[in-house]
Amino acid sequence: MIRFGIVGMGNRGNLFADTLLQNPYAELVAVSDAFESALEKSKDKYGVAGYADVKDMIENEQLDALVIATPDFLHKEPVMLAAKHGIHFMVEKPYSTSVEEAVEMDEAVQKSNVKCMVAFENRWNSPFVAVKNAVENGEIGDIITVNSRLNDTIFVPTQMLKWSKGSSPGWFLLPHATDIALWLKKNAAPVSVYAVGTKKKLVGMGIDTYDSIQSVVSFDDGTHATFTTSWVLPESMPLIYDFKYEIIGSDGALYVDLSDQMVRKAGGVYSHMHTLGTPINGQFTSAPSCMLNAFVDHIRLDTAPEADSKAGLLNTKLVHAIHRSVENGTIEQI
Question: Among 3, 187, 215, 224, which is 20 to 30 Å from 209 by CA?
Answer without folding.
Answer: 224
